[in-house]
Write a structure and sequence with these properties.
Layout: E1 5-7, E2 17-19, H1 22-31, E3 39-43, E4 49-57, E5 62-70, E6 79-85, H2 90-101, E7 106-111, H3 123-141, E8 148-149, E9 153-154, H4 155-159, E10 166-170, E11 188-193, H5 201-209, E12 212-215, H6 224-239
Parallel strand pairs: 1-3, 6-7, 6-11, 7-8, 7-9, 10-11, 10-12
Antiparallel strand pairs: 2-5, 3-4, 4-5
Length: 246
C-alpha cells in the first residue's frame, strides 16, 4: 500500500513535530482513516519531501513527527506551459488535474472568444478551486513542486506577452509539417488550446503571427480536454521525460 502524500504550506524541518492544517487533518483522520503510528510523506511545494509518522489524532488536528528529508524530484526536463481556453464545469478540472500529472509547470487559463467565462467576483473562487485541484494532483502523482496557475486573462492581452523557446497552437484546420526531432534544444514550450469549439480562425492566425507553430493531431476532431492532454503527452514523449515510451 502506498504511503499518503500530504501538502502543507508551512515550513517543514526534519526531526520536528507539526500539526497538519484543518483540511489535511480531516482528510487524514476521516477519509484515509489513518491511525497513530502510520507513515505519511509531507511536502510544501518548494522541492523535496519529508517522511513522517502520525503521533496523535484528535477531533480537529493530526500531529505528525517529521523524520527525514528526501531530495526527490519528478519534474520534467522541459518547462511546458499550457495556455488553455477556459472549459466549462468539470472539464477544466480534468484538464488541470491531468496536465499536472503529465508534468505541466504552468497553466494559464485564457478567456477566448468561444469560452463561457467573464471576469467577476467569482474569478478568485475559480482560481482557488483550480489550485486545490493541482495540489491534489501533486499529492497523487508524486510531484514536490506545485505548478503555477495564473489568473484568467483575455486572449488578446495574453498573446502579446507569450514567450517561450517554442510555441504551439492546436488547430485541426491548420495542418503543418511538424517534426519534433528536427527542433533545436528546447527548454520551454507554450501549448495553446481553445475551449469548447476551439479557437476562432482570427485567434489562430493571431497566434501564428506571434510565431506560434500550428500543431495538428490527426484527422479526428478532439474535445478540448482530450486535445490538451494528447498534445502534452506527445510533447513529453518527444522532448520531455516520457521518451522511454517511444
Amino acid at each position: 500500500m502506498s504511503i499518503p502524500r500530504i501538502y502543507q504550506t508551512s515550513t517543514l524541518k526534519s526531526y520536528t513535530t507539526i500539526r497538519l492544517d484543518e483540511k489535511a487533518s480531516h482528510h487524514v483522520a476521516y477519509v484515509l482513516r489513518a491511525k497513530p503510528g502510520d507513515s505519511l510523506v509531507l511536502f510544501n511545494g518548494k522541492g523535496g519531501e519529508y517522511t513522517g509518522v502520525i503521533n496523535r489524532i484528535d477531533k480537529k488536528y493530526v500531529e505528525v513527527e517529521i523524520k527525514q528529508f528526501i531530495a526527490h524530484e519528478v519534474e520534467s526536463e522541459v518547462a511546458i506551459s499550457l495556455a488553455q481556453g477556459i472549459a466549462r464545469g468539470d472539464k477544466m478540472d480534468v484538464i488541470v488535474q491531468k496536465s499536472v500529472e503529465l508534468g505541466v509547470q504552468t497553466i494559464m487559463p485564457l478567456i477566448t472568444e468561444r469560452c463561457h467565462f467573464s471576469k467577476s467576483s467569482a474569478q478568485q473562487k475559480r482560481l482557488a478551486h483550480w489550485q486545490a485541484v493541482a495540489i491534489s494532483a501533486c499529492e497523487q502523482c508524486g510531484r514536490n513542486r506545485l505548478p503555477s496557475i495564473t489568473a484568467p486573462i483575455m486572449f488578446n492581452e495574453w498573446i502579446e506577452l507569450a514567450k517561450a523557446d517554442h510555441c504551439f497552437v492546436l488547430s485541426p484546420y491548420h495542418a503543418a509539417d511538424m517534426n519534433f526531432k528536427n527542433l533545436p534544444e528546447i527548454k520551454s514550450i507554450i501549448l495553446l488550446v481553445g475551449s469548447e469549439g476551439g479557437l476562432t480562425d482570427d485567434e489562430v492566425h493571431l497566434a501564428i503571427h506571434h510565431q506560434f507553430s500550428p500543431l495538428y493531431l490527426g484527422p479526428r476532431i478532439l474535445r478540448t480536454e482530450t486535445a490538451s492532454l494528447a498534445a502534452i503527452s506527445i510533447i513529453q514523449a518527444y522532448l520531455g521525460d516520457m521518451k522511454i515510451f517511444l
